[in-house]
Amino acid sequence: MKLFNSHILVLAALVWASLGTVALAFSREEYASALDKSLLFFDVQRSGKLPKWQRLKWRGDSALNDGRSSNVDLAGGYYDAGDNVKFGLPMAFSIAVLSWNSVEYRTNLRQTRQLGNMLNTIRWGTDYLMKANTGPNELWVQVGDPNTDHQCWQRPEDMDTPRPAYKVDASRPGSDVAAETAAALAAASIAFRYIDDVYAGRLIAAARRIFAFADRYRGKYSDALGGVVCPFYCSYSGYQDELVWGASWLYKATRETSYLQYLIQNGNALGGATNSVNAFSWDNKYAGAQVLLAESVLQGVKGLQGYKDRADGFICAVLPRSISPRNQVQYTPGGMVFSMGQLSLQYVTTASFLLTTYAKYLSAARRTLDCGGRQVTPAEIFSVAHRQVDYILGNNPRGLSYMIGFGKNPTRLHHRAASLPSIRAYPQKIGCKQGFEWFNSRNPNPNVAEGAIVGGPDQNDNINDDRNNYSQMEPATYVNAAIVGVLTELAVGRQY
Question: From which residue to which does the signal peptide run (predicted)?
């Protein structure tokens, strides 16, 4: 977690050679291994009393008293990145995207024997998000003071910094974080449907309640909470995109006319049917909502064409110029989608997920995509996502895999738990400042943060393996969440 503005500059793309058929850079077994690791990273990030099904064993229980000072139980959930703060906005986004992956690629997850791991990972997040909703118009959205936390380098199991809890309510609205939470719960309700109908019912009931709060009391949560969330997770894009995103998931989960009419009637005012964007991130959800709703248009639902038009524009903008004359996104010399220099791989994984999912929708509808007069096939769209995943896994100019535990990796991840000896290896408490002895060491991290995808290379495919280099060496849950579905397609050998 670090600050960056998600408004993406539109850059001219480098011309790629004709893609043709993408040769497998890795075997299906290797993609299956990467898939397993992509979910294992959430074990690294888990907060609270660890469950019996926790697979990664070097982590321990942490932050068991979260919320107690405010007379609320906020133990559980996930740390966002390499710190020990629980930020509600990126956590809810991570769970929403994981749930979308589960909904779209359930068959693949079952075939690769990862469905149980996926649902366990989602449920750990949704259990936390539901108990954070302590009243009709009250949602706890953060635990931990990031300013204090960033002055220490401690394992989650040791941290003794203040753990204040922060909420939004009717007098301090946070439509963005509340609507994002509603989206996560609504999406998860579909993931659990027919597996645990009672739990799915609780999820959708909470999603309805929290979305109503988000819509009735409008405002940016970073305006209400100020320096507690800024400049770390400021709501740069505003809250309108989250209202569209939340309503989109409530419509998909319920198919109720009221949510469809909300999207139709508010499409222009909230920007969902009019705003064109070139990135999908923890901050800006328009592209995700537009792609999600495009499926409904392809299935014959009326009134949402503006959303599909914007989804078409997003896909055409992200595709390289060799495929799309309407390209608007830069590619590095080595072929990586490049949108921002900080946590650059966030935009690679989210773009890859949307490309793959849109290719899936088009294939089911037997349609192609018109990009400036060029008819682009689902296979061509998926080939770009495939290349991006291969780049992450090591098919890049540096020959490094940016997924820890897979292939040859950087070794100095900017991550407290990974960079300090585990409590099993070093049971003595490590103090706030004491941990910087390990932080400043040139030695590799003592713990392997399995599956963590690092922040990523710069626009020239370069990366500096240094713990101080948080913009390139810090992982985050929302980077990993978006890669799962694409990996399932590659692991099962999906053909478009």
Answer: 1-25
Of 83, 104, 157, 180, which one is the catalytic site residue? 83
Strands 86-87 and 138-143: antiparallel
Residue 127 annotated to the active site: no
Taking the domains of the chain in order of start, what are their residue ranges?
28-492
Question: CA 184, 185, 191: angle at the middle one, nearest 5?
Answer: 90
User: Tens of pLDDT along 171-199?
Assistant: 999 999 999 999 999 999 999 999 999 99
Q: Is 465 among the catalytic positions?
A: yes
Please, are residues 279 and 351 in contact by the beta-carbon 8 Å criterion? Answer: yes
Instruction: State residue 24's pLDDT score.
Output: 57
Q: What is residue 171's DSSP assignment?
A: S
CB under 8 Å, gap of 24 or more: what pairs does 167-172 form? Answer: 167/70, 167/134, 167/138, 167/139, 167/140, 167/141, 168/138, 168/139, 168/141, 168/221, 168/224, 168/225, 169/135, 169/137, 169/138, 169/139, 169/217, 170/137, 170/213, 170/217, 172/219, 172/224, 172/225
Q: Is 403 helix (H, G, I), strand (E, B) or coil?
A: strand
What is the residue-averaged pLDDT of the chain? 94
**Set 158, 312, 474, 489: catalytic member:** 474
Q: What is the pLDDT of residues 250-286, one digit of tens each?
A: 999 999 999 999 999 999 999 999 999 999 999 999 9
Q: How far is Cα 129 from Cα 96, in angstroms, rounded to an integer? A: 11
Class of domain 28-492: mainly alpha
Q: Nearest-CA neighbor of 246 among 298, 206, 277?
A: 206
Check if 474 is active-site.
yes
> Does the reported pTM lie above 0.90?
yes
Question: Does residue 221 register a pLDDT over 50?
Answer: yes
To the query of whether residue 83 is one of the catalytic residues in this protein, the response is yes
